[in-house]
Design goal:
The chain is of the alpha+beta class and 316 residues long. It has one domain. It has helices at residues 49-52, 59-81, 89-94, 99-133, 140-162, 166-187, 193-197, 207-222, 232-259, 271-280, 286-315, and strands at residues 9-13, 16-20, 24-30, 36-42. A four-stranded antiparallel β-sheet has the order 1-2-3-4, sandwiched between helices. Helix 5 (140-162) packs antiparallel against helix 8, helix 6 (166-187) crosses helix 11 and helix 8 (207-222) crosses helix 9. The longest helix is centred in the middle third of the chain and has 35 residues, at 99-133. The protein is globular, with a radius of gyration of 21 Å.
Length: 316
């Protein structure tokens, strides 16, 4: 029986996996001595963020910014710790100064990187499409469709290029391990390495699916008659202005396709994202799946403990 009480999500990091729960995020990584190390953070959000996370079309933008800030801290932990010999742990910890400043700096860098990446990925295809096709293809929808094809080409080319490096290949394996664990959990089976390995490396709610939906949704939104343009600069300006709209609608589309994934015919709506995931995930080995399971179990355990403390505090 499928387990749908909570929709958990995760992220691959260097030599490990991060999972987010209701109240905590946990990363587990494989160390040089083959042990598993953990990094855990309690979710702390300003009160004004809570209502925004419940608002359709706005919640997607909030989720994306939060994921970039939170994920960057976990990526930083993994990149700094996975290849450090455990005997050096005390020395590393003793040298840490200004930890709060460092955490905030890493989070800010993650958000700025997200914004810069989105702008580049939005502006460059728009400029190329205008230079190549504005005179040849005056029909707005077809022109925007070509812009979308340029985006997909750049995206796929970038993924294929970075996937040739050993570290990214292993990152994609951990990405596959993350999906396998989520799929196994949602199917309601015991999280053993043998059970988890039977499941797919693809998942409907993946961020890779989100990327492809931003392309498809963007083509439709940009093609509305009210967003016609006369110059290349107007085109670029409109793309930047509409970026939050595209992100918000794409997020809702992603959630919608996830709800339809078990319905015949309608399940195919999520296939474009799954096709892209075939590039961003790889089959993990048993040790990588073991790390992903450890991260997920640690997150669930910490989540349950915090919920129990909250309940005791409210009744006491």
């Amino acid at each position: 029986m499928a387990n749908q009480e909570t929709l958990y999500g995760g992220q691959a990091v260097i030599e490990g996996v991060m999972f987010g729960g209701k109240k905590v995020t946990v990363t587990a990584i494989r160390r040089k001595d083959n042990s598993i190390d953990y990094y855990q953070e309690i979710k702390k959000e300003p009160k004004w963020v809570q209502p925004l996370k419940k608002m359709p079309f706005v919640r997607g933008i909030v989720a994306l910014v939060y994921a970039a800030a939170n994920g960057s801290r976990h990526l930083n932990f993994a990149s700094e710790r996975y290849d450090v010999d455990p005997s050096e742990d005390k020395q590393v910890n003793d040298s840490e100064t200004g930890k709060l400043t460092l955490i905030l700096g890493v989070a800010l860098a993650g958000v700025l990187s997200l914004i810069l990446g989105k702008l580049i990925f939005t502006v460059v295809p728009a400029v190329l499409a205008s230079l190549l096709f504005d005179e040849l293809v005056p029909v707005l929808f077809l022109n925007n469709l070509l812009e979308g094809l340029i985006k997909v080409t750049l995206l796929v080319g970038y993924i294929l290029a970075i996937s040739q490096t050993p570290i990214i290949k292993r990152l994609f394996q951990y990405h596959g391990a993350e999906h396998k664990v989520i799929n196994a959990y949602e199917a309601g089976v015991d999280l053993t390495v043998e059970n988890v390995q039977r499941f797919s490396t693809l998942h409907y709610r993946c961020g890779s699916s989100f990327m492809i939906f931003t392309v498809l949704v963007g083509v439709l939104i940009y093609s509305l008659p009210i967003f016609d343009y006369d110059t290349i600069w107007e085109r670029v300006y409109l793309r930047i202005l509409l970026l939050p709209v595209v992100i918000g609608v794409s997020y809702e589309t992603l959630q919608f396709t996830n709800k339809l994934r078990d319905i015949p015919v309608l399940q195919y709506l999520g296939y474009p994202g799954l096709w892209l995931q075939k590039l961003t995930t790889r089959q993990p080995d048993d040790q990588q799946v073991e790390v992903a399971i450890a991260s997920f179990n640690k997150m669930r355990e910490a989540d349950n403990q915090l919920e129990q403390k909250t309940e005791l505090a409210s009744t006491g």
